[in-house]
């Protein structure tokens, strides 16, 4: 796994805020089938890179391509429709709807079927097949009729992931997907992310280096806006500069 085609790439990515350069000369390749970690200390520029990739921020310099198409000047909504989706973009779940209803609603969004949809019960039933597929993919099929509010914290985050998958992303950007989770949920979510990436690509910001070591095929380390090292975890974690700058050894 992790050796597929490059689906998301940036070259010479740079972002200045006034006189301050938050991201500088960043080259990044994310491949189909891989879980790619973006790591680095606070202030390294990880969030800025995510905002640049999803087009929430315009780069000062550099190019971004998504499945071969130049998206450097493309709007955030168009980029999302093209298949680059950041989890929180649509991950607001509705606590008083059931798990299944949450995924149904998410499935309607990309096609903009809402008006037509509410008039037609059969359309609603048709969505259930796809919704159940997504729930099975993330292991929430047994919880379909529970209210979202009644899920555990970990399973709420998994439901958010399912509603994100409803947009049919080719590249999924996850910002600390395991944040605040206990050991058991971390393992469950790691397994889901691994399975999700098999037919897509995942780029994730992650602070837990054990998760990175166990889950991620490739790691890019940022420091003060620049790439310090990139490669598989074994290579990156033994890199002298990474050890000094990031891992404190
Ligand atoms: P990380 O996500 O790795 O913690 P960020 O991308 O949030 O890092 O921030 C990188 C640097 O850019 C930080 O020094 C931060 O203060 C700065 N920065 C981020 N956004 C802005 C902004 N809108 N205006 C000015 N400085 C910013």
UniProtKB/TrEMBL annotation:
One of the record's GO molecular function terms: ATP hydrolysis activity
Keywords: ATP-binding, Nucleotide-binding, Transport
Listed InterPro entries: AAA+_ATPase, ABC_AA/LPS_Transport, ABC_transporter-like_ATP-bd, P-loop_NTPase
Family annotation (CDD domains): ABC_Mj1267_LivG_branched
Domain of life: Bacteria
Signal peptide: none
Domain (ABC transporter): residue spans on this chain: 8-249
SUPFAM superfamilies referenced in this protein's UniProt entry, alphabetically: P-loop containing nucleoside triphosphate hydrolases
GO CC terms: plasma membrane
Name of protein: ABC transporter ATP-binding protein
Organism: Aureimonas flava
